[in-house]
Sequence to fold (263 residues):
Amino acid sequence: MAPYIFMERNGIHIIDLYKTQAKVEEAASALKQIARSGKKVLFVATKKQAKEIMSDLVSRVNMPYVVERWPGGMLTNFATIRKAVKKMASIDKMMENESFRTMSKRERLQITRERAKLEKNLGSISDLNRLPAALFVVDILKEHIAIAEARRLNIPTFAIVDTNSNPLLVDFPIPANDDASKSIALITKVMVEAIEEGLNERKMDKDRKDESEEVENDEMINEGEEDVRGRRRRDDSEEDEDGNKKRPRKAIAKPTKAAPRRS
Fold:
């Protein structure tokens, strides 16, 4: 972290905020491009002071997030995690069925508790149907398992890195205090706004594409209608006064004069 430290005072390292600002802008630009391409970014923050901040901000852009214990193998064993999410969906269907009401009170209680446990750990990633395109982490020391899994799968990592961490472990380190709630909220807000901007640009591009396709379709329809009108005009011009189609005149070959015979 030496390149990002401005000075040391009374045993406390002070981070250079100019370098923090540059890294924040770099990370925000990269996340914006990822969001514009339609891919998902997984946010991870299981620290007590970051849980509520992360869930409130990230839910605005419908991105997945983990604020409870990181489920080991969530990325490297993603198929198993998806099975647990599907199980939660099947429990929801079962609870809506009439057979659920006929179960004993103890069975209903067990199913309800299992559903609440799955919702607590996996509810925020239920819409994650494939591996995320990037990972945003608060405190890489606490979330070292998530960082290790992302590095193993070559998933780009964005992280708030404090002075006691190694910035080389992540692709886009943001030097800042990962213990202060205000610092976490400020940086996370910038990242979420960048993602929101990327999503809006993606929507605008899609609307423009749809409009251009509609214009092309209208032009093709108009050209087809003009061709039909042209054919009708030609057909009308070939009809006589009685409404019968005129027959084309046959060309009559004129007899040629025979050459006089020589005696």
Residues 34 and 133 are 7 Å apart (CA to CA). The helical segments are 17-36, 48-58, 78-96, 98-102, 105-122, 144-152, 181-237. The two ends are 124 Å apart (CA to CA). The domain at 27-75+131-206 is CATH 3.40.50.10490 (Rossmann fold).
